[in-house]
Each structure stands twice: as C-alpha cells, then as structure tokens.
Amino acid sequence: MEGSDLRHWGVWLIALAALSACSREAEVPVESRSAQDLYIAAEAELDAGRAARAGELFDEVERLYPYSDWARRAMIMSAFSYYDAQRYELARSSANRYLDFYPAEDDAAYAQYLIALSYYDQIEDVRRDQGTTIDALQALREVVERYPDSDYAKSAELKFDLALAHLAGKEMEIGRYYLKRGHYTAAINRFRVVVQEFQTTQHTPEALHRLVEAYLSLGLTDEAQTAGAILGYNYQGSVWYQDSFALLTSAGLDAEPQGDGWLSRIYRQVIQGKWL
User: Fold this and answer.
1) Helix or strand or coil: residue 114?
2) Residue 206 within any structural domain of the chain
3) Per-residue pLDDT reduced to its tens digit, 101-115
4) Rounded to whole angstroms, how far apart are CA atoms 74 and 189?
5) Residue 221 and which of 61, 119, 171, 228 are 20 to 30 A apart at CA?
6) Last residue within a domain, chosen from 41, 67, 87
7) Tell me: the pLDDT tens digits for 214-246?
8) CA–CA separation, 27 and 99 (whole Å)
9) Domain finish residue from 40, 66, 87
C-alpha cells in the first residue's frame, strides 16, 4: 500500500474512532454522569450554538445534584441559555428558582436582570397590547430597587425609560386616532395620561399640543390656553409649541394659564419646580 493511501487510511481510522467515542458518550445515561461532566457538556452545547439543549443539560445538573455547587452554577446558566434561545418562559422559571434559593448570591442581580430582559425583548409594536411592556417595567424596576449598586442597574434604568416611552407611544397613537375622527373627549383622556403619567418621555410636548387642538375643537378655551402655557414653559423651542401658539393666536387667545382645571394645577406645580 502506497504512503498516500496509508495516510488516508489513518485519517479514516481516527475519524471512525472519534465517531465511536461520541456514540458511546451519547449512550451513557444522564443519571450515570457526574455533575461536572453534565455541566461541561452543557457549556459545550452553549458554545456550539445549541442554547436550548444547553439549558436542558444545565437543568439536569440541578435535578440530579440539587445541593451541589454545580447545581447553583447550573441554575443561572440555565436561565441564560434559555434566554439566549429565546425560550423566555423557561428562562424566567430558572431565574426565579435561582432567586428563591440564592437571593443573597452575587448572581442574584443578574437573575433578576434576565427576568426583566425576557420581558423587554418581547415588547410588541405600539399598535398591539402592551401587557408585556408593563411586565418589563415591573421587572426592570425590581433590578433598580433591589440591586441599585449592581452592574445591571444602569442598563435597567435605561431600558425602563425606553419601555415607559413605548407605553406613552401607545397612548399617543390611540389619542391621535380619536382626535382625527372627532372623538375629542376620548382623545383628551389619552393625552392626559401621557402628560400626567409619562411626563418624562419625549411624547409630552406633542401630547400638550394635541390637548390644545382637542380643547379648542370643543370650545374649552381655558384648558387650551393652559395646555399651551405648559408647553411654552417647558418646550418653547419645540415645533409643537410653535403649532400651538399659532392655533391659539388665530383664535385670539394667549398661551397663558386659565381656570382651575387639572392642567392649571400642573402649571402651578411646574412654576414651583415640582414637575419635570
């Protein structure tokens, strides 16, 4: 047999031996494998891009060796693996178990952050139901309040603001829909939510302008002027104030607070520095 044939034969034998070893490993029952062996196998699955399978193997570590240090480490890795695989309910389940068993461990903040991310990554378009956004806000708040000094608090705060803006955007979309169709009272109710509950978001200037539009359409000039006054006090350089100012002046009105309604109360709070 020539040298090149021998080399090819040797390579074939090595490959066959490797396949045989893999086959034997696959045949070993999970229950017969050590915690370390299962953990290493789970890490290998994760490195190979098979995150869901990795999560299953990490779960086996926890199931078979529940009181070991390997189980504690596997629990948080299970949460991460399922999150990476976009198996969000399973990720939350693993993370919650970790918090139940190890609330004071260093990885507890990360477990809570993974729960928040599992909701945050599922936030839908503003045209759809926002139940997941509310869940994300609650979970993100938990990260900030329970673990303010953790590495995840700042990221959670940023995502909280973005999720809040998402909810405000939902209210704005519905309000615009009602306004365009002449349902002014329904529109006002939506814009009021933005001004009162989501005043730190970028939607507030437009919400105030839409209130000017809606109140003028209903002939409620005091409220329209007061909305314009708040808009001018906080966002005088915005295009929304320019549009509101033009609407008010065309009706012979000023952007000054009038009456004693809910907007007037907000205006007084603004002047006193208690709002925004």
Assistant:
1) helix
2) yes
3) 999 998 999 999 999
4) 49
5) 171
6) 87
7) 999 999 999 999 999 999 998 988 999 999 999
8) 34
9) 87
